[in-house]
Amino acid sequence: MTSTVRYPQPKNYPVAECVRTANEHIAQGSVIYQKFTCESCGSRQTMEEENTFYLKGKCEACGHTTDIQKDGCNYMLVTGI
Ligand SMILES: [Zn+2]
User: Fold this and answer.
1) Which of 64, 65, 52 minimizes the C-alpha distance to 15?
2) Enclosing domain of residue 25
3) pTM for the complete prediction?
4) What mean pLDDT do residues 23-52 have?
């Protein structure tokens, strides 16, 4: 049976919490890419550098720099590589 989980609203978490859980995935051989939401235009952004967390992120859509440490972030998990 296949189930699909949908996230209608992207949720953001404190950076420290993301780093902690991401490190557990990285230790198991997975790769993560940090994601955040632009505080200006609301666009969902993904960092290009793998296994790296930033405290600020520039939006590719509008150029605004978001304070990720304040707003929180999430990450995309790539497994089985
Ligand atoms: Zn933006």
Assistant:
1) 52
2) 15-78
3) 0.85
4) 96
